[in-house]
Amino acid sequence: MSTVHAPAPVEVTVEGPATSFKNQIHIGRHLITADEPVADGGGGEGPNPYELLISALGACTSMTVSLYARRKQWPLESVRVHLRHSKINASDCAECRTKEGLVDRIERTIELVGPLTDEQRTRLIDIANKCPVHRTLSSEINIQTHLAASAAAAVI
Q1: pTM for this predicted structure
Q2: Residues 41 and 93 in one domain
Q3: Which of 4, 42, 72, 154 is a good FRET partner for 118, with 20 to 30 A between their CA atoms?
């Protein structure tokens, strides 16, 4: 397998008024609207943050599996990834390190369409578990938060 060189990262900017949950997400030349459902006080004008998070996992899963099958010249016709996010009691999760409180659970079901052998299907599921977003979500994450100098603060 040849090495894939990732392009330079694009900065993502998210902005929204303090009066609602609706936010505009700017990713390079792309624009996505995020919001909360009406039942949770939002306008329902876009996916909520957890839906965006699991969408990233689903897209990465599909892309990774498809790339691997293409490289192997396997007869994979399409990939469909179904995802659900929930919070569960840690005590109900035998495989979790955390034993108290709630833990996040993402359920992922992968449909592989095409005349694949059982061995190919098994290998593609193994590959799905190695997609970069899966690895990120299941590893330690270090988030560094900084306060930007605002125009209002500079005037004072």
Answers
A1: 0.85
A2: no
A3: 4
End-to-end distance of the chain based on CA atoms, in angstroms?
57
- Indicate left, alpha or beta for 132 from its phi (over 0: left) and psi (-120 to 50: alpha): alpha
DSSP assignment string, 47-104: --HHHHHHHHHHHHHHHHHHHHHHHHT----EEEEEEEEEEEEGGG-TT-S--SSEEE
| Same domain as 113, residue 78 | yes
Q: Are residues 127 and 62 in the same domain?
A: yes
Q: What CA–CA distances, in Å, run from 21 to 24, 38, 40, 94?
A: 10, 10, 10, 35
Regarding whether 124 and 85 lie in a shared domain, the answer is yes
Name the amino acid, one letter, at 135. Answer: R
Query: In this predicted model, what pLDDT tens digit does every residue of 97-147 receive, in sequence order?
Result: 777 788 889 999 999 999 999 999 999 999 999 999 999 999 999 999 999
Q: Domain span at residue 62?
A: 48-139
43-101 residue pLDDT tens: 999 999 999 999 999 999 999 999 999 999 999 999 999 999 998 888 888 777 777 78
Clarify whether residues 35 and 56 are in a common domain.
no
Q: Alpha-carbon distance 51 to 48, whole Å?
A: 5
